[in-house]
């Protein structure tokens, strides 16, 4: 009798435990992992303002430094790529300032002292770095007097992307 009672209690407890579990259900969640490797580089510059240009006979040249500091990389050079700008029509097009409200565009050229002259849209050049992982690149932009002839008076602007690529050490 004692054996039959234990068997009945065990069977009841097992049935209750199984009834508490969902029938063939599972739930899965993804654990999203991310990591960012920081190069330690700081790239800083300011705007390159042309200032006021006389619409009848003016052109303008402006210069600004691009300061790169604190880079840890192998080698002594980095590749600098300069895009067409926000108002360029394609990879090899002219760089252009666009009027704030009108459709007028003003062509300009961009030069960099390390590159040895005009930096073509989409072109890359090598820049040397000092032993401290830094460099100063001097960019100049020029507007020829003929480029402003007949243009609408007002504000013009463009935004050029500059990418610094190097191998981490």
The portion of residues forming beta strands comes to 25-35%
Radius of gyration: 32 Å
Uncertain runs: 1-21
Estimate the global geometry from the Cα principal axes: flat
How many β-strand stretches?
Answer: 10
Tell me the helix content. Answer: 10-25%
Number of helical regions:
2
Describe this structure as you would to a colleague.
Strand 5 and strand 6 (117-118) form a beta hairpin. The chain is of the alpha+beta class and 169 residues long. 15% of the residues are buried. The chain contains two helices and ten strands, in the order H-E-E-E-E-E-E-E-E-H-E-E. Strands 1, 2, 4, 5, 6, 8 and 9 form a seven-stranded antiparallel sheet that branches. It has a three-stranded antiparallel sheet with strand order 7-3-10, with no helix packed on it. The protein has helices spanning 2-20, 145-148; strands at 42-44, 60-69, 77-82, 95-99, 105-112, 117-118, 124-128, 135-143, 156-157, 162-165. The longest helix is centred in the first third of the chain and has 19 residues, at 2-20.
Task: Describe the structure concisely for a colleague.
This protein is of the alpha+beta class and 169 residues long.
Detail the topology: elements first, then pairings.
Layout: H1 2-20, E1 42-44, E2 60-69, E3 77-82, E4 95-99, E5 105-112, E6 117-118, E7 124-128, E8 135-143, H2 145-148, E9 156-157, E10 162-165
Antiparallel strand pairs: 1-2, 2-8, 3-7, 3-10, 4-5, 4-9, 5-6, 5-8
Descriptive labels:
single chain, 169 residues, alpha+beta, seven-stranded antiparallel β-sheet, three-stranded antiparallel β-sheet, 2 helices, 14% helix, 32% strand, flat
